[in-house]
Amino acid sequence: MTFHIITFGCQMNVADSEWLANILKARGLKQVATAAEADIILLNTCSVREKPELKVRSALGRIQQETGGRLNVLVGVAGCVAQQLGTTLFSYSPQVRLVAGTDQIAAIPDAIKLLVQEPSRTLCLTGFTEGYHERPAAQGETSPGAFVNIMQGCDNFCTYCIVPFTRGRQKSRSAKAILAECEAALKNGAREITLLGQNVNAYGKDKSGDGTSFFSLLKQVSALDPSMRLRYVTPHPKDMTEEDIEAFALLPNLCPRLHLPMQAGSDKVLKRMNRRYDSAGFLKLVSGLRRARPDLALSTDLIVGFPGETEEDFLQTLSMTEQCGFMSSYSFCYSDRPGTRASTYLDKIAPEIQLDRLQRLQALQDRLTASWLNARAGQTTEVLIEQQSPRQNEAGYVSWQGRDPYGALIHLSLPADAGNATGREMPVKITSAFKHSLHAELL
Fold first, then answer.
1. What is the 3-state secondary structure (H, E, C) of the chain?
2. Per-residue pLDDT tens for 377-392?
């Protein structure tokens, strides 16, 4: 049988989908590139961004169209929207026969086997497990950069965020299991490891933890191979300890890039978001990080038009964004998520005001990004090649793309007879900047 996986959302979903693909291939199924070719289609969903249910409904409609609506095609919906909507998803499409929530990813392979054997049956798996249940190791192809989940869920309950409801309460994996997975990824050819968690630096601060702190885990993973690259996402500013900050000075293979969600620059808005830090504390954290690693590249998440946000509040967000000098950001207009406290707030901001503020914020970010990218011209760095680039090239050359330790996307031309460059690290000199990426030449 053949299968196809469609993934929305975060890197944690990407990691889950990769695990599923490797397990299904180990069980004799063949992965195919399109839904039209597949007997089994899995949709791994995200509910963090705007209109997630509509996106899932649209995706199921496209699947139905591409497969001709054949009822012998088994469609499963997994992830956050599955956790949120449960059996409602069966009404979205007659092809949907499996719904699996965020704690039930490991049950999907056996569920597929059962549903193939019983074509008239449906299954809805949305229960939360008590602790972090380790799933079987999945041997398979490893990309140059490996994602390793170190925890699941979140205990913060920011007033705008649905994650604690769709991912459940925080549960940390054992350090032993994490290290074993990292070792296996390195053995299979990974040159970069990214540790994942909804609140990654709160690792170990729950009853599922084994006493290992996040800083201790970082040191242990770093020591597995001093020549590999190490990253992590996503930390919460309130949980960044002095040790976490000093890690950027102490661990040479911890990349000088950090995604640090600020969300807003106004203390009033931050308090209403239940972020549990203020603007002064955030600036102090940024200052400490840059003392530890002066070349640290910072990116962030920002929400504009949060309920009750005034023009003055928004101007404080603009000011904080400029003071922090973020090299990139993900910015969005606030939208309600069902069940969150902010969805009950009555002082919503008009859509046209939200959009105006978003455009002004993104114009500022474009300027900061251009400044950061242009300043890289002439620098030397190491690029870890990920795949061929879609950019056009002159005859006899192939365009490749990868990332440097700062996480910048870099395009590089190599002779066509150089072979497959995927997974190779190459010393380069940056020659020019595009709007969101860089061009370099091989040294």
1. CEEEEEECCCHHHHHHHHHHHHHHHHCCCEECCCHHHCCEEEEEECCCCCCHHHHHHHHHHHHHHHCCCCCCCEEEEEEHHHHHHHHHHHHCCCCEEEEECHHHHHHHHHHHHHHHHCCCCCEEECCCCCCCCCCCCCCCCCCCEEEEECEECCCCCCCCCCHHHHCCCCEECCHHHHHHHHHHHHHCCCCEEEEECCCHHHCCCCCCCCCCCHHHHHHHHHHHCCCCEEEEECCCHHHCCHHHHHHHHHCCCECCEEECCCECCCHHHHHHCCCCCCHHHHHHHHHHHHHHCCCCEEEEEEEECCCCCCHHHHHHHHHHHHHHCCCEEEEEECCCCCCCHHHHCCCCCCHHHHHHHHHHHHHHHHHHHHHHHHHCCCCEEEEEEEEECCCCCCCCEEEEEEECCCCCEEEEEEEHHHCCCCCCEEEEEEEEECCCCEEEEEC
2. 999 999 999 999 888 7
